[in-house]
Structure formats: structure tokens, C-alpha cells
Amino acid sequence: MKKTRLNSAVIVVICIYLILPLVLTFFYSIFTEWQHVLPGGVTFRYYAALLTDSSFLLPFLRTFIISVAPVALCLVFILLAMYVVVVHLPWLDRVMQLVCTIPYAIQGIILAISVLSLYSGLPGLLSNRVVMLVFTYCIVVLPYLYQGIKNSLNTVNAPRLLEAAQLLGAGSFTAFFRIIVPNIVSGISVSVMLSISLLFGDFVIINIVAGSYYQTAQVFLYRQLFESGQKSSAVVVILFAVTLLLTNGALFLYNRRAKKRNAREEV
């Protein structure tokens, strides 16, 4: 009993430690002055100004686009690669796993500087900063998407499901993308949501690779730090709220997937 209370107390203290900075940031963004212990003058003008200001909405839209596009592109390549591995070349599974886990060991700043120094002087499309940013983000989310899809394929026992579909007359390509992939949509959705939330909060890579070429909400926040502390606090709260929604969406999909799997096992 004492141990349970101690564990609960530790969890409560950790939660307060993590939530308190965000709460204080929110309070700072809605009060007009905070010169004493208690603040004074409640206002939501900074939120109203941000949500009606095109200089914030456009970077916010760019952030969403640059978070979704690399994930979608990387997802297509991974599904095609997994099709080849599952159907034609199973021995490549370990090689692919090794390649896809390498980005775990590469820090964002090292990856960004390497890509910039390698492609910035080349002629053509590869030297475009936005293109470099998209493919850099593809490398960042590669291990997260791969591991999620790999675990989902193992859960549904993809090789046996593929054999059963082929016995019924389905081609390998049709069996993989019309039978196996629909059965792992929930797992793919979790990986996609987590990857988008990861890219949504990035500042280091986009500031190095794109910078002023492609201003996002994180770059906008960095510039607001030198202009208005309360307005930058409002930006932090908005970005955190969006990231929280994405993470909760991924958690909801994961829990629903776990319930369905448990229900199938009970049957």
C-alpha cells in the first residue's frame, strides 16, 4: 500500500514538473502585466491577432505541408520496399532493417549540415532548399515509419496472409496492396501521426536547410522571441496544442488497434 502511494506521488510530481512550464507560459500569454506575484489584466488579443494574421497562418500552413509531404513520400517508398521484401526477397529484411535504423544514430544538426554541404552547390532540382528539406525529413522519419509498418506486418502474419490470397487466385501485388495493407492501416496511421508530430516541432533542421527560404511556424516563433514575449508565448501554446492533438490521435488509433487485436485473440 505504501509503495503504491509512493509511486502515485512520484507520478504526480513528475506530471506537475512537466505541465507547470506550459501552464505558466499560457498565463503569461493571456495577462497584460505580470510585475508582482499575481498577474493582472486578462486578454486573449494575442491569440486573436495570431489566428487572423497571415504572417502566422501562412508559416503554420507551411509547417503542416512540410510535415505531411515527407511522411507521405517516405510511406510510399517503404510500402513498395516492404512489398519486394515480403513477396520476392525475404533475405533482404535484415539489410533493410539495418539501413532504416541508421538515422537513429544521426543527430539532426549533423544530418542537416551534411545534406546542405553536399547538394547546395549542385545545379537543378536537388539544390532547391525545399526539395532538400523534404528528403532530409524523409531520412528523419524513416525508422519510425519502417518500424511501425514492420510490426504491423508481423502482427497480421503477412507471409501466410499472402499465401492464402495467392491460393485464391490473387496476384502478389494485388494481394499485398489490397489485402495486407488494408489490414495494417491502423498501424500505419499510428506511425504516420507520430512522424508528423515529430516533424511539426522541428526547428534545427529546417532553420539550417531552409531558413528564410521556407519560413515555418517554428522559424516564426524564433523571430517573435525578439519582438514580443507574450506573443511568442501564445505561439508556443498553439503549437503545443496542435502537437498534443496529433499525439493523442496516434494514441487513440493505437489503443483502438490493441482492442481489436485482443478481441480477435479472444475469439
From TrEMBL:
Gene Ontology CC: plasma membrane
GO biological process: transmembrane transport
Keywords linked to the UniProt accession: Cell inner membrane, Cell membrane, Membrane, Transmembrane, Transmembrane helix, Transport
Classification via InterPro entries: MetI-like, MetI-like_sf
Residue ranges of the TM segments: 9-31, 43-61, 68-89, 95-118, 130-149, 161-180, 192-214, 234-254
Pfam family membership, one: BPD_transp_1
Domain ABC transmembrane type-1: 60-250
Subcellular location: Cell inner membrane; Cell membrane
Name by which UniProt lists this protein: Putative spermidine/putrescine transport system permease protein
